[in-house]
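Budget justification, computational time. The allocation requested in the original proposal was used primarily to generate structure tokens for proteins on the priority list. As evidence of use, we reproduce two of the resulting records. The first is shown immediately below.
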Amino acid sequence: MKKADIVEFFARLAEDNPAPETELEYVNDFTLLVAVVLSAQATDVGVNKATRRLFQEVQTPEAMVALGEDGLKEHIKTIGLFNAKAKNVIALSEQLIAEHGSEVPADRDALERLPGVGRKTANVVMNSAFGAETFAVDTHIFRVGNRTGLAPGKTPLAVEKKLEKAVPQPFRLHAHHWLILHGRYVCKARTPECWRCKVADLCAFRPKSSAPKQNRAAKLKGDM
């Protein structure tokens, strides 16, 4: 994708949603970190359902350790891989207490040393909690980056590096949220909804998908 097209691509997404945010619900930096760890291979909707009550009771590493692994499992048992995630959340809480004064570190390398925290999770926390211009490449961003030609790559890290080079100011802070939301609601995995995509003309994906017949009929009726 050409530089001018990239600017236009993000300008349109920004016009549609000027201040995008994560759809995960959280109270503070610690609960954000926990929510992102829990969201691996799970939907934000599912995580939010599980954590609403949890985050009313637990908002600090100390409270999480006091809750304990079994107590945490009761809250998150509807989330995939909840056994391993509960173990990691308790361990990272203990590490935050021991090594970071119970604070979430504003450093990607330090975050990645926490149990259950990989590069994607660290990038989300750095961006949402600390305003860092990071690009957390999940399945949605990986798909959009490759489909559109914005940031093609064979691995999430390759796509991330391409985004680092390609995304210009003033779009860098919110870029990964725009891409996640675009992939989640428009550029869907099975069938991208090209007929209602605001950046379809800038996108390299071919062939473009057409609106379902009933939608086309409704549109024609509305145009009459």
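The second record produced under the same allocation is shown here.
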Amino acid sequence: MASARLQHIIGLIPARWGSSRFPGKPLHPIAGKPLVQHVWERVARCSRLDDMAIATDDERILGASLAFGAKAIMTSPGHPSGSDRLAEAVQAFPSATHIVNIQGDEPLIDPALIDRLADVLATDPALPMATVACPIDREEDLDNPNIVKVVLAGSGDALYFSRSAIPFARNSRISPPLRHLGIYAYRRDFLANYVRWKPTPLELTESLEQLRALENGAKIRVILTDHVSVGVDTPEQAAQVEQILLNTH
């Protein structure tokens, strides 16, 4: 393992059963395996994580995860956010100093990207939180409220996240707009405080949980990548991912 002596970096994969568009999504079969197993196997390739687990609210996901050899943790079904689920799950890792939150519906996530994110956070002891963004190259994505945008300071820290097109291009664009990718890394002590904070006005307005950190004055470092993983939000997207996996093996 590559972590420093006093650091213990863990990867957590939240996997909920309930989904308005795709109930039972984590166990949906893709190329002969449950979706969450594909995610687990990708994350297992990381060199920067000292341990990892699936955090779920459902006995079916727990049983399936244990069956394919994963470490799995049962959490309360009543959590209002993924961060709250992480805060409960991390209690199973008393030595953990940093947590990387990997979405359970990203079966094509790049392990090297997870390692980069973990490394950025772990090498700066003053940094509480980090995430990832990539350039937006399709004009129609700018007006899609399901694609979250982010603008950065010169330091690489997030200035703001929005479902609207930011920055507004009154003149020609100097640099491409950025799409936020939903993978996060937290320092453990920061995560414990973060979930105690009440939802904030901008968070509630945009329905973006990460704005709570900015509204409370916390820095969020954003690393840039050209890698855009294909997530699974619908059965149709699951079929698309299956074709990608079948064509690459």
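A brief technical remark on that second record: The longest strand covers residues 178-187.
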